[in-house]
Records
---
Amino acid sequence: MQGNGRGTAETSSSEGVSGAAARLQKLFEGHRLTPTQRRIAHCMVRQAGDAPFYSSVELAELAGVSQPSVTRFAVALGFDGYPALRRHLREVAPTEQGADDGSYNEYQQAVHAEIDNLRHLAALLADPAPVAEAGRLLARSRPLPVLGLRAASAQAAGFTYFARKVHPDVRLLDEGGTMLADRVDAAVRAGGTALLCFALPRHPREVVEALEYARGAGLRVVTVADSAFAPVAHHSDLLLPAAVGTGLAFDTACAPMLLGRVLLEAMCDELPDAQARLEEFDARATERGLFAE
């Protein structure tokens, strides 16, 4: 189970939390952060509503790092120390600290946390340019390899299932090992120009290595990850963040799944024969009696 989401207090406004998370994300972007600092940044984005109220000790405990690491993180962002960073957060993103009144049980809290993740994703999609650019890259790649290992394999498989209805050649890469590089090479030899990756925690080392290899082979890498500070960030040409839920024993990935569908829509917009392919599939499915409805 990732993070410290179980039992997290509800904030007074989902919209306010989404806005605070977006502002935090913007604050952290453009800084070269170490893996430990990215972990702190990720923790703060996930806890955006309460982040301005944490002490350095509390934040260190939540992120699973040392207190001096939190201080160095604040300095890396250009502040004199953590108190200055916290003061800045309170000034630019004021929000009421959440209060857990016991009105929601842990299952309901997990659902509400996912709703917050979706609101955050909606706020990020206010600028459609990155998704539109990703759609162009994916549509032009023939073949299009789609990578997703371990926890992310379901996201990659779901995208591939639907993408094959409109794209002429989509190749699912859902198994690691020594054959993974061979399959990347095969896609490049066949004319592939881009790779789509779904990367979710915990991030397998072989995913990071595969993306590094793919870029070295000449592929443009589009990545859907749980955070802009994920380990795959430095190995992606275009990273689209969508947070995962951590309130249950196993992470939930509603936002990454929805972002995958948004990417499908953007890709369809760049494929002139997408609608014709869908209509052909529907006609054949009817002829075969494929569906019970």
---
Amino acid sequence: MSDWATAEDSEWEFGIQNKMMGQINTMRFGEKYVNDGGAIVLSTGILAQYPFKGSSIVTTVNAAVEAAVKSAAVEVERIRFNAVSPGWVAETMVAMGMDPEPGMPAADVHNTTLI
């Protein structure tokens, strides 16, 4: 992850086009396929609430997805939109060279985010 000062435009564009627009387009285009009273549930991430140094792009796009969910929930009445924001997965933290202590094992995350 690049920090605020060193992130290139291409890194911002990648985050925006993939994470942000991928999730927003799931709502935009998926809404017509969901039965009345159904729901679309997206995943954001804990960095939207608790950013750390070097997380500016991920923090920003996750927060944008959360804002889009709130906006869609107000504008589209026939279905629900929700977002879950899981914490760090310990195995991901290890793969990123981070201390996995504050993370949660993948199996535990799976069990806590089922809807």
---
Amino acid sequence: MSLVSLRNVTKTYPSPDKGGERIVAIDDVSLDIEAGDVYGIIGYSGAGKSTLVRLINALEPVSDGSVIIDGEEISGRPERELRSVRLGIGMIFQQFNLFNAKNVWNNVAYPLRVAGWPKERIAARVDELLDFVGLREKARSYPDQLSGGQKQRVGVARALATEPRILLADEATSALDPETTQEVLALLKRVNTEFGVTIVVITHEMDVIQSIATKVAVMDGGRVIEKGDVFDVFSNPQNASSRRFVSTVIKGIPSPAELAVLQERHIGRIVTISFRDGNADQAAVFLEIVNAGVAFELVYGGINDIQGRAFGHLTLALRGDDTAIDAAIVRIGQSTHVTEVR
């Protein structure tokens, strides 16, 4: 059984114009998130990502469909029953949402007081979490005395306070610089591996998904247009919108416009060799080309690694006798896919 299941979920809002058609924010979305997943939900601004998060933690009701958390249908339940559901769902935000008038210790303690934990247990839990996020020495500091990365670590500690099984991270690194982003992502990985917390990462940044997620759903116009293992979606995206996202961090096969530039700048026959999860060894491919008496130049592309699995596309300009080039392409094509573009 999935920890989080969405079944044909739709969310609409009234039109700002009197008598206008309702605005569809989420359109017939079905999704399953298994316990232990780090599940990325990615899309451009306005795709419906943040609305989907608010449906998962019942901050907003669905217009149609079902949201099931740990086997329990939460759609349509009264607010008094949803409070206990939300205790099992932590959330971290883009702008941290800390209480500026409370110090770090009391920010982390706040949800525990709301939940009615005894003082002794609150103290032990807060100290444990501040140790976990590396901020024990900042316990008496206030948010305006912290860096952005430190604020987000406080946000993580606070989100974990009530021992949730699910953590929702809504654009949690968008306000951070690249180095701090990697520190926060490393912390989220620890949350997942050491505490066993299932994490749903909402982002528009493909490199965040590449760094941390095990599965991904791509959203566009309120719909999930592609989903699956991150490696599969990244290495072989099936939807045009997915391909646009992937291209922001991974150079694939050159577009027609890019090919025109390559053809102007480089002499020779241009081919793209595709590598996927060990289907061919790069060194062996290059050696095959050299042994055929063909010179080559790497002109586009790269190889990427997602959790130990490699894939990518290398575009080469081959120079030499046409017969030798043809023979080399045939031999290389026996172990990997070769596309000749000129």
---
Amino acid sequence: MRIASYLLPDGTRSYGLVREDRIVDSGSQLRAEFADLRALLSAGATKRLETADGGEMGQGEVRLLPPVTNPDKIICIGLNYMSHIQETGRDKPEYPSVFTRYPSTLVGHGQPIVRPKVSDHFDFEGELAVVIGKSGRWIPKEEAMNHVAGYTCLNDGSIRDYQRHTTQFWAGKNFDRSGATGPWLVTTDDIPDPTALSLETRLNGEVMQQTKLSDLAFSIPELIAYLSIVTELLPGDVIATGTPSGVGAFRNPKVFMKAGDRIEVEISCIGILANDVIDEN
């Protein structure tokens, strides 16, 4: 099942099922009960979309938003592909490297991401994002996948010079509209084994990153178990699982995004997250 969040032509926020190039809207009656996808996930009611009566429309008739527009938490993992760890000259860390992003930093598929006026070191990071569907604390690794609602693509757009101002990543990861996620959530019944997926990031059509998800240093169950020790994971929470090798900062010469570029993150069985780059006004 593919579920998208979007703005209807009249500006109403909604969500619905994606079927090929069409969207079946949830409808006002279902939205009155579950205002958004996070609420639907919290109630374990995604199957209700199969009988939604909100009407059908083309994808081009709506403005796609991040699949979960209001997550309680966006938790990002750094240095989580063996190829990327080797690229940076480091050893595999003993524990996951964790930082956070704010919802205001992410836009949906087809919306522009913004290079801030203070930097020309705007880098791309294609990632698989895990969306939590069932809350939990102290989740055993063996039960972790039971807490996953599904998966989506994420571009963890990074302002590299600000990222390196201190040992904390926060500044470089939280510029408004610097990253993106989408185009939709694909539920676990369509992706029984995320490690079988492949990821590719393209800048203006040129492949920058390419990997199998099996290269993750810390697996999805390990991440969920570790993070749930620290905080209760809630339905709609997003875990960005890290980026593979090939980022612009470690290329020779370096490659950074600029206005007019188009960046695409494609993950098999999910789809393509595509965004144009613009300069901050």
